[in-house]
Automatic annotation (TrEMBL):
Name this polypeptide is given: DUF3800 domain-containing protein
Species in which this protein is naturally found: Ketobacter alkanivorans
Length: 180
C-alpha cells in the first residue's frame, strides 16, 4: 500500500507508506465515576501504513464480518455481550498479527499530587510508551489518531501537542488528529 487516505476532523489526511500510525481510544472515566470500572486509560494499536491492508484492514474486516456481522460499527467492549466464539476470534487475531499494541491506565486509588491532570499524566506516559514501541519501526512520519469524543479527546491531544521523537540525529514531530 502506497498511502492511507483517512478522513479526520482536519479533512482528508494522506499518510505515506513510511508513516507509523497509532489509533488510540480512552477507556473508563478520567474522574473514576463508574464504580463498576474505576479506572481510566488510553490504549490502542499501531501499524506502518505499508502493512495496513495485510495486517489490519483485510484480517480485521474478515473477523468482524464473520463474528459480528458487520465492519461498519466500532467495537466498544462495554457495549457488547461477547460470545465465546467472539472472544476466541479476537484473542486469535491479536495473537496472530504483528502490529503494535500500547496502553497506559490508572485507577481511582492513585493519588495525584502534581499540578497536572490525570489526562496530562496519562498522555505523557502514553507518549513515552509510543516512543518505546516506535524504536522497533523505521518511519519518517508519526501520527496519533484518536476517536472523537466530546469528553476527553481535545485534552488528550493538547497533552500530546508540540512533542517530538528523537531518531538518531533527527527529530520527528508527533502529529495527531481526531476521527468520527
Amino acid at each position: 500500500m502506497d498511502q492511507l487516505n483517512f478522513e479526520t476532523d482536519n479533512g482528508l489526511e494522506i499518510f505515506g507508506p513510511n508513516t507509523l500510525v497509532f489509533a488510540i481510544d480512552d477507556t473508563g472515566n478520567e474522574r473514576f465515576k463508574d464504580p463498576a470500572h474505576p479506572v481510566f486509560g488510553l490504549a490502542g494499536c499501531g501499524f506502518m501504513v505499508i502493512d495496513y491492508v495485510r495486517l489490519i484492514d483485510g484480517p480485521w474486516s474478515n473477523l468482524c464480518n464473520r463474528l459480528f456481522g458487520s465492519v461498519e460499527r466500532p467495537l466498544h467492549a462495554s457495549e457488547i455481550q461477547f460470545t465465546r466464539d467472539q472472544i476466541e476470534g479476537l484473542s486469535e487475531y491479536f495473537k496472530s498479527y504483528e502490529f503494535f499494541r500500547v496502553g497506559v491506565t490508572t485507577r481511582h486509588e492513585i493519588s495525584n499530587e502534581t499540578e497536572e491532570s490525570i489526562i496530562d499524566l496519562l498522555g505523557n506516559a502514553l507518549l513515552a510508551r509510543l516512543c518505546d514501541v516506535g524504536q522497533w519501526a523505521i518511519f519518517d512520519r508519526f501520527v496519533i489518531i484518536i476517536e472523537a469524543s466530546d469528553r476527553v479527546e481535545n485534552r488528550i491531544l493538547r497533552s500530546l501537542s508540540n512533542k517530538e521523537l528523537e531518531r538518531g540525529d533527527s527529530r520527528i514531530k508527533v502529529e495527531h488528529s481526531c476521527y468520527a
